[in-house]
Design brief:
Structural class: mainly beta
CATH topology of the largest domain: Jelly Rolls
CATH superfamily of the largest domain: Jelly Rolls
CATH architecture of the largest domain: Sandwich
Strand content: 35-45%
Order of helices and strands: EEHEEHEEHEEHEEEEEHEEEEEEEE
Radius of gyration: 20 Å
Distance between the termini: 16 Å
Oligomer: single chain
Helix content: 10-25%
CATH class of the largest domain: Mainly Beta
Number of domains: 2
Shape: globular
């Protein structure tokens, strides 16, 4: 936001969904996700991953196909054969997720047919009172100790549990053991990967009535055994401009995320939008609603839960409304 630039047009997206057993109804009830799955655990809002591609709302085309025809939409940021290097999700954990870990890029490339590993970031949209998540170990462990605890079902004694609140941010590097707890609704920004190694799943049964698959041997090769420091929420600084305020949330070599508070109710001009001229960006509305007015006269109405892909060198745009958005770039 700030100086406006000319170029390509933003694309309102439609997500793919996942019906994992721990999901609930909030993505339908709170975000009006029209996806015929029950439960609805995840919506993959901006994705070119084959396991859950998002589509362009106006045309029904898969985003991956649009980018293949218009690689300039990605800008100069390194891509994966005209696909996005990141993936944006909404996650509704009605029940707790498995205790899991993701591999690094290096391990995945060598052992998972050239796939990406997975470093991710969570933004807590809402959480039940007392809700917690798992972030690393609460003490140093070793492989024999961890295997024994997994076999005996006592691994939870070694897990670091952290209370969560709306607005909290958690950065999960590849190799960090983690689990989203019950009663948490969050946005996840991650590498474009669907590699998950389950360490422990509380003895739950899948939809087929059988225990869900674990990946203990693989997980042992990538998990960080040392204790993790309890994550602390960073001090945030709001930067104000006419019609909106923004704050930096996190940055790593894979993505960067800001929170934008749009409010043009009390100003006499709409907020100018500035995108990076060399890379795409993604806008995820996590509350409220608004409209994007484009320089050519077109407009896009957006509501809570909507996701918009903004191409590199985007057409000049102005935003109007009252909303909270995550602004995601690379």
């Amino acid at each position: 936001m700030g100086v406006v630039i000319q170029g390509n047009k933003p694309l309102l997206l439609k997500p793919s969904g996942k019906d994992y057993i721990w999901g609930g109804r909030r993505l339908k009830d709170d975000f009006c996700k029209d996806i015929d799955l029950t439960p609805l655990a995840e919506s993959w809002e901006c994705s070119t991953h084959p396991d859950g591609p998002s589509t362009v709302a106006a045309t029904g085309e898969k985003l991956i196909d649009v980018l293949k025809h218009h690689p300039e939409y990605l800008g100069t940021h390194p891509s994966m054969e005209d696909s996005l290097p990141i993936l944006v999700k909404l996650i509704d954990a009605d029940k707790k997720l498995s205790v899991q870990v993701h591999p690094s890029d290096e391990y995945a490339k060598e052992h998972e047919n050239g796939q990406l590993g997975k470093t991710e970031m969570w933004y807590i949209i809402d959480a039940d009172p007392g809700a917690k998540l798992v972030y690393g170990f609460n003490r140093n462990v070793n492989k024999p100790m961890l295997r024994r605890a997994l076999e005996q079902g006592t691994v939870e004694r070694y897990l670091q549990c952290v209370a969560v609140h709306p607005g909290d941010v958690f950065f999960i590097e590849a190799g960090t053991v983690h689990a989203i707890g019950a009663g948490i609704l969050l946005a996840e920004i991650q590498e474009s990967s669907n590699l998950t190694y389950r360490l422990y799943d509380y003895g739950r049964l899948g939809k087929d009535g059988k225990p869900r698959e674990l990946h203990v041997d693989k997980a042992m090769k990538v998990v960080k055994m040392k204790s993790s420091s309890e994550p602390r929420q960073p001090m945030r600084v709001l930067k104000y401009k006419p019609g909106f305020a923004s704050e930096f949330l996190t940055r790593c070599k894979y993505f960067q995320v800001e929170r934008v508070l749009l409010n043009t109710e009390r100003v006499h001009a709409m907020a100018d939008y500035q995108t990076g001229s060399t890379s795409f960006e993604i806008l995820l509305c996590i509350n409220g609603c608004g409209v994007i007015n484009e320089a050519d006269g077109d407009s896009i109405n957006f509501f809570k839960g909507d996701c918009i892909f903004v191409p590199a060198n985007s057409i000049s745009m102005k935003l109007h409304g009252k909303a909270k958005l995550l602004k995601i770039g690379c």
